[in-house]
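_Per-residue structure_
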Amino acid sequence: MLVALIIVGMVLLVTCAALWPEPDEPKVTSEGALARKLLAGEIDQRQYRTELARLARGL
């Protein structure tokens, strides 16, 4: 009886672990990627504004 109870508990544990949702990855937008580049010093303010305007135009 105890062995059956342990087996059922293990099956439930494995099932819950398999069905547990993974943490969502943060969504990176184009604007966010540009802001990150600006803050990291990869692009300057002029390049940031130019690229942001290009994104706003949908190009």
Q: What stands out?
A: The CA atoms of residues 41 and 49 lie 14 Å apart.
